[in-house]
Amino acid sequence: MSSKANATKKMPQQLKRNRKRKIGHEEVELSEKETGQTKDTSLKQVKIASSKRKTWQPLSKSSREYLQTMMETVIIAILSNSGRENEQIQYQLNCLKKRLLQLCETLKVPPKKLQDLTSVSSLLKMERAKYRTNEEGLTLLQEEIDKIVETTESMTGSIQALKNKIQILTSEVEEEEEKIKQMFQIDSGVLSLPELSQKSLKAPTLQKEILAQIPNQNPLLKDLDILHNSSQMKNMLTFIEEAYERLDAS
Q1: Are 116 and 66 in contact (CB under 8 A)?
Q2: CA within 20 to 30 Å of 52's CA: 3, 45, 68, 245, which one?
Q3: What digits encode the pLDDT tens for the residues 196-226?
Q4: Residue 249 in 3-state DSSP?
Q5: Where is the composition biased (Basic and acidic residues) (predicted)?
């Protein structure tokens, strides 16, 4: 019985010991969920020796100013995205900011951390300079975009005007085609011409008879040959051929 009692007494002590681990020179207290090896994660409480805390120093003024600037920026962003009840949200956020700044006034940090925070003001100036540069770049980019939009709108107007002109010209061409069809009396794509008479079939014979009555035929034939080979006659024949081709195509 005494051995069982001793075992039961040792069990809580082992559990308490298992809840603490040493990481470097710092002792970390683990939660019950972590000691039980469950899947749920929990916060870890770090215990630091009092000898180390003696070297800690309070936050510098520049660090507190940087934190204040960051909080004000976050508050402005939240208020710009929120809808109604901005006054109540702003009041609560300002209260949180005030409490945090009050805690930062008495908060002490390790020297290494303090050295890192001393450069916050210079980093803040660099970020502000980058912000101004980005703002100027965005302004120039917006101007270029406006010019491109204006050019695009003018080109769109020119294209629309050209489309209107094309429609007008197309309608005029259709009207001219209708007039040509009426002139040549086209019906269903066939040229309606009168039938040839018997006299027209005898035209070459009559031509010979007429030439036989002329005493000097050779000069007349030369003149006719010159007239037939002239550029005016060729142009007229070409025009007639093109007219027939268009009629066949229509």
Answers
A1: no
A2: 68
A3: 666 665 555 666 777 777 777 777 778 878 8
A4: helix
A5: 24-37
